[in-house]
Each structure stands twice: as C-alpha cells, then as structure tokens.
Amino acid sequence: MKKLILGLALTAGTFAFAQQTGNTSSNPVTFGVKGGMNVSSLSKDSGLDDQKSKIGFNAGVFANIPLAASFSVQPEVQYSQYGNKSDYTFAGTKYSASTKLDYITVPVMFQYNLIPDLYVEAGPEFGFMVSAKNKFKNESNGQSNTTDNYKDNLNTFNFGIGLGAGYYFTPNLGLTARYVAGLTDIAKNRPSGSDAVRNNLFQVGLAYKFK
C-alpha cells in the first residue's frame, strides 16, 4: 500500500508539474484516456511443461507534457492485466492453467516525435498488484476451478522498462503499441538457486486526447 501511495503521489506531482509547464510552453499540456489489449507472459519457469501468452486488457488516463519542440514526458495510471497460460503434469495427470495478475501501473514514458504525429517512447513502469488468481483445468475430465486471491504470497511491486511507439491519425485519436520487460521477480520468497520469474507484456490500443 505504501508503494502504491508513493506511485500515485509521484504521478500527482508530475501532473502538477504539467500544469506549471503548460502555462509557459507554446505547446500546451494535454490530458487523455487510453485502453486496449494486453498480450502477457512470464519468463520461463522450469516447473512448467509449456508456457503460452495470455490475452488481457488495459485502461487508464494520461497527461502529455511538452518539454521541447519534439520531446515530451507522459505519465499514466492504468489498470493492466498480466499473467500467462501454461501446461504441467502432476501425479501423472495433465493440467492446463491460466495465471491472472492484475496491477495498477504507473508508466512514465519519455516521448520523441519523429514527425508531428509519430512518436517513439521509453521509460520506467511501476506496478502495484491488486489481484492474483489461478484457474486450473484437468485435461482428462474437463473439471476446472479458480483459486482465491493470493497476491499476499507474491511480490506485489513490479518494476519494468517500457519501449513503444504511437501514431495520431487525427489530432485527438491515436494508435499506440508498447512492450514492457519486467525486471523484478514475481515471487516474494524465491528458493535459493532457482531462477527468477518476471513479467513480460505487449500492449496495443487506442489513445484519445482531450483538446
């Protein structure tokens, strides 16, 4: 909770900076909403036979703060679904599993406009887990069940680096794409000698600026 408050305070401070910057810049600060599809995965876990990507969604708000003619910073607050799908064998029985990890994320992207409507971006993303659930299916009989929220057993803070691009085909509406590579282990207490498991995410969606 302290990390979540710190992340939101950082974003609020950036928004306040945006207001001040917008008063002195010829390019005004713009605010907007965005949302789209997530394609997420986890780095290789030796305990699983086969790992696959999982489809989810993201939605949030942003402020775009001009710093120079072609350079800006864009803080965001999103609700974003991470996780993966996997297959494993237990006691001779094959199971499929879907891991759903939901986060409130605070990306802070530094953007450079290659042309007025096309930009590339990079920056950190701070994630704060709000839910973690697994859905299991017994492949032999088709029975399935979903676990309770077990986020307290995991590392609820996630730090990643994002790389992306976007194109505004109207002054208000744009197409965005971003890849986020997680740098923190999702496990709270990783056994000594075992490999860390990290989040990986590809996002694509739409952004709308209010002008």
UniProtKB/TrEMBL annotation:
Record domain Outer membrane protein beta-barrel: where: 17-186
Upper lineage: Bacteria, Pseudomonadati, Bacteroidota, Flavobacteriia, Flavobacteriales
Record's keyword terms, sorted: Signal
Protein's name in the database: PorT family protein
Signal peptide residue numbers: 1-18
Gene3D superfamilies registered for this protein in UniProt: 2.40.160.20
Entries under Pfam families matching the protein: OMP_b-brl_2
Source organism, top-level taxon: Bacteria
